[in-house]
Amino acid sequence: MKAYMLLIIGLIYSINLLAVDKPEPEQKKDKPPRVGNFALPGSQQPGQFLSLGANIIATDQSQYSMMNTYFAGHQQYQTTMAPAYLYGISDNISIFLQMPFAVRYKLDNNHSSSISDALVQFESAFYNKQTKEYEDQATILTGIFIPTGNRDMNPATGLGAPELLVGATFTRTYVDWLYFTSFGLELMTENDGYKAGNQFLYQFGFGKNILNIQSDWIFAWILEFDGQFNQRNQIANIKDSNSGGNIIYVTPSLFISSKWLIFQIGAGAPLIQSWNGNQHNFNYVIAANLIFSFYQT
Fold first, then answer.
1. What is the CATH number of the domain that holds 168?
2. Do the beta carbons of residue 77 and residue 106 sit within 8 Å?
3. Which pTM was predicted?
């Protein structure tokens, strides 16, 4: 309970900092032409696929999404469906709610399925810039993973304790190209003598507009590199030698959007993976995301 209270207090404090929505400076007349990646509103433009954050949309706009992922490896796989809701509190602040479902997990000869850990995340764009050639946006985010999953299952569908998420993103978008990077930290808490290792996220990628159909559709490809470094788990303050390590996935994807719809699908494989002790390797990931956008009437 103490861990819950500390995390909730920290989250509320962070939200208060983000909620100070400073007035934007007077907009310059210079801005990119509304073609290529800019043919549709900002929420419908190409961007991150599996990477953290960059979930800034217009005031009172809503998005409903369903992310589906399948991670497969040696004697293991994870099939997850993650419905989510994104709401624009203002043009620079958003709230993101996600409730993942472990549809089917396998590790060696064991199987499990249940709700996984839910996420409540706030994000603020603290830097925006427009020129005739490009647009920049930088954000910071904070969130909490709620332990709605089950750590006692084999394989576990949750970590059994709340996690605090903090991170930052940067995106530069041109008419034809885009570049992005994000960094995050997941701070774990202890429950019943068990504490999962903290996770460090480091991610970057780029993409290119393929074509536009009038001003109604955008087609683009994205190439993404998603790294995750895990510290060792601890049981009764003793580090588990068969836990923790580092992995970097490279994932190409196809992005398609209209004013009301986004669909992105891709497949990737580990570029680097180095695990401590005796742990199974992952071989590939397949992912697809479907997003429906709704605007203020």
1. 2.40.160.40
2. yes
3. 0.90
